[in-house]
Design a protein that fits this description.
It is globular and about 45 Å long. It contains four helices and six strands. By secondary structure, the chain is an alpha+beta fold. It has a single domain (about 5-150), classed as Roll (Thiol Ester Dehydrase, Chain A), CATH 3.10.129.10. Strands 1, 2, 3, 4, 5 and 6 form a six-stranded antiparallel beta sheet that branches.
């Protein structure tokens, strides 16, 4: 059984996509629809990459992009309309053309971890739309963040089904 970090442990990570759950995102069960968990976590990951040299306009500004390759999603507690949420990101590793991350959606209203998205994402050269080695500056920034996140005082619990190749 995977043990995820606690809400309190994750509070030291920067918060991204801080917002209340909007009513249009609610499903018939009265909570955040499954498709929006992934979208919000993905937005949080995108925001966290800006400081590493991966701006959201990277495809237009530099001809590079990040494409998602694999996800593993774990739903722990429901988020309901009006609940405040945030995303926290932990980078786990990098290969020549890919990176591995955990994104946690926190329920700020109730002080709990709601969702965990584990993702492998790829560096893409948009001129060929194929994977390519990370630019040197971005690779160094990712490596720095991976090292910082490796020093967090709790384990990086993963699904075990995703890995860098």
């Amino acid at each position: 059984m995977t043990t995820h970090p606690t809400y309190d442990q994750l509070l030291d990570l920067p918060a991204y996509v801080e917002q209340p759950v909007p009513m249009p995102f609610e499903d018939m069960n009265g909570h955040l629809n499954v498709r929006h968990y992934l979208g919000i976590a993905s937005e949080g990951l995108d925001e966290s990459l800006v400081s590493l040299g991966i701006p959201q306009n990277w495809p237009i500004s530099a001809g590079h992009a990040c494409f998602s390759a694999e996800h593993h999603c774990t739903y722990l507690t429901e988020l309901r309309t009006g609940d405040m949420m945030s995303a926290r990101v932990r980078l786990l590793g990098r290969s020549d053309r890919a990176a591995h991350a955990l994104v946690y959606l926190l329920d700020e209203t109730h002080g709990q971890v709601s969702y965990v998205m584990e993702e492998i994402f790829l560096h893409i050269d948009m001129s060929t739309r194929r994977t390519a080695p990370w630019p040197e500056d971005v690779a160094a920034n990712i490596d720095r963040r991976v090292a910082e996140d490796a020093d967090l005082p709790f384990p990086a619990s993963t699904s075990g089904c995703l890995a860098l190749r």
